[in-house]
Amino acid sequence: MDFKKASEVSKGIIVDLVNKTFADYEVPVNWTLTSFELDIRENSISLDDSYIVFEDEKPIGFSLVSIRGARGRIDAFGFLKEYRLKGYGSELLYYTLEKMKWKGISKVTLEVVDTETSAKKFYAKHGFKEKRVLESFIRYLEKTDEIKFGYSIVDHKWIHDRAVEALHYIGRKPNWQREPKTLDLSYDRYQMEKITSKGFSIGYVVWGMTSKGAFIVDVAPLVDETKYEDIVKDLLNRFADLKFKDVTMVSLPEDDPLNKILKKFNFNVFLKQVEMEKRIH
């Protein structure tokens, strides 16, 4: 096996390899070059610290790594089906973690689908511990009331600053994909809005749409946690008014206050993941 930095490999080869590898997983990946480029930026993926595995010049596996300061995250990791259960995964994971350690990374996180028992055992064998559950939600929409709040476009810097405040005032506990830094780096990808009531800013929402419906990236009140339920209720009515059939929100930590709010509004869980963590320094 040969390891090459992902920065030395064509992005097209990486996208094709990742899509083929995850094709038989419970949660498949369907990257395009554009969505891969956006994920690189949004999730702070470092191609210089990520590796593509080759055997006889054929790409067979990968380890894509995100880095923020002394924190690291394994964004995607895997091998083509015919190269699994050969010990290659352990070799690649060890190589990846050693490189991260020498770069000064102290803690590494990753996510695994809860039902993928073999994957959880694999990472546990290599020192990763289960930290918390991440839940993905869906709710079918029906308008129940008139829209009460105002929504106006703001820039990503405003969203970032409000999300930082929410960490302190609201007790948010975001995962990597919902951190203020991630929201800041996701500019031009999603709809970013300030929520107002009687001329005063009371919250923010970051959202987008697919051919099937709307999805929430993040939503929170600015200072007053008691407004959380009112904001979510109004947002649901707004999405229904926009003729969306359903709304989803993925990978929301079980210990984040928004998790309980969604369950109160009868969102259904359609996927559970486990966030795992390992300290390497």
From TrEMBL:
InterPro entries: Acyl_CoA_acyltransferase (IPR016181), GNAT_dom (IPR000182), YpeA/RimI_acetyltransf (IPR050680)
PROSITE patterns (UniProt xref): GNAT
Listed Gene3D superfamilies: 3.40.630.30
UniProt domain N-acetyltransferase: residue ranges: 1-146
CDD domains per the UniProt record, alphabetical: NAT_SF (cd04301)
This protein's UniProt keywords: Acyltransferase, Transferase
GO molecular function, one term: acyltransferase activity, transferring groups other than amino-acyl groups
Keyword Transferase: yes
The organism's place on the tree of life at top rank: Bacteria
A Pfam cross-reference name: Acetyltransf_1
Full protein name: Acetyltransferase
Native species: Marinitoga piezophila (strain DSM 14283 / JCM 11233 / KA3)
